[in-house]
Amino acid sequence: MSTCTKPAPSTAVSPASADGDAFTAEVAPHLHLLYRTAMRLTREEQAAEDLVQDTLERAFLNFARYEPGTNIRAWLLRILSNVGISGFRRVARRPQTSSIEAVEDFSMYRAVRTEGIAPLDVESLVLNRIGEEAILAAIDALPEDFRMVVVLGDVEGFPYKEMAAILEIPIGTVTSRLFRGRKLLQRALWEHAREAGILTSTRTSRSA
Amino acid sequence: MSKNPTISRAWVQGAAGRLGVSEATVRRWIRSGRLNPVCRDVYGQVFPFLDRELGPAELAEVERHIAACPGCEEHFAFDGTVLRFVRQRVPRALCPPNLQDRLLAPFIGRAAPEP
Asked: Dihedrals φ, ψ of A152, to 5°?
């Protein structure tokens, strides 16, 4: 139609027209967050790199949908979580190492008291003897759904509302997964303490 | 049938779901004293409490209970200690510089995608 006119050229740089350089500047500060989270999700360096690369590719193609000024960390992690689910999880799912059914059969609080340790001494007598790498190993042993909320909540410090947006689940599900995930983490830390001889040395030093 | 008429079937069902055990197990735990329904309900809020995610009314309810129940107060403090330990001590790796370069390389100088 002859009445059809060309749209006026936009002068503002909107995300819709952002090129690779603008995109790179926007996401570069968040590579640490993406890499760390991908490492916990995949537990392998090469798989983590692939996951971050796929996440960035999808983020670039969808950058027009990102609203400037909104939470880009949550936006990028939502993409990472989606890419992880559709790609990585199907091919690389491992047998889950923890039985979710048994989660409530273990209480670290109760175990500590059974061991004869005053609960509020747990930090000096047990926790401070657990190495930092053992904390990561305990997180990595969690079943995937629980691992993700523990990583987002306790490693990255996201509030519940943002975790719900990232994982696209209700806040109530975030709350229940955090409860079980942290209980499983307590169990893993306690088992580590026992296997590493920390409880034995604690017993010795207390009776000395 | 529950021996304790004040504990509703709905509570037992809810607890069984939350705890991932059967209703019979929940009833056994209540009878043995391992599970106190009031403390158990409050304890279900332990992490939202520690994470400062409770609304004013829920927060007041939890604070009222733990102020009056030394067992719950200690239990909450214990979980708070473990939680702080994990948050403070968990290693937070950085993305190595050469990997950052590799990850961003495909986008440098690239035209905006077609809308």
From this structure: -65, -40
Whether chain B has a CB inside 8 Å of the CB on A108: the answer is: yes
The whole model's pTM is what? 0.81
Whether residues B91 and A136 touch (CB distance < 8 A) is answered with yes
The string of pLDDT tens digits covering residues A117-160 is: 999 999 999 999 999 999 999 999 999 999 999 999 999 999 99
Residue of chain B whose alpha carbon sits nearest to that of A136:
B90
- Model ipTM value: 0.83
* Residues B78, A155: C-beta atoms closer than 8 Å: no
Residue segments in chain B with a per-residue pLDDT below the cut of 50: 1-5
Q: Which two tokens stand for residue A28?
A: 């570069």
C-alpha triplet A39, A43, A46: angle, nearest 5°: 75
Q: Are A181 and B111 in contact (CB under 8 A)?
A: no
Residues from chain A that touch B89, judged by Cβ atoms under 8 A, are 132, 135
pLDDT digits (tens, 9 = 90+) for B75-89: 999 999 999 999 999
Q: How far apart are CA B41 and CA B38, in angstroms?
A: 5
How many distinct structural domains can be found in chain B?
2
> Which tens digits make up the pLDDT trace of A5-19?
444 444 444 555 578
Q: Let me know if residue B32 belongs to a domain.
A: yes
Report all structural domains of chain A as residue ranges with CATH numbers, in order of start: 17-92 (1.10.1740.10), 101-207 (1.10.10.10)
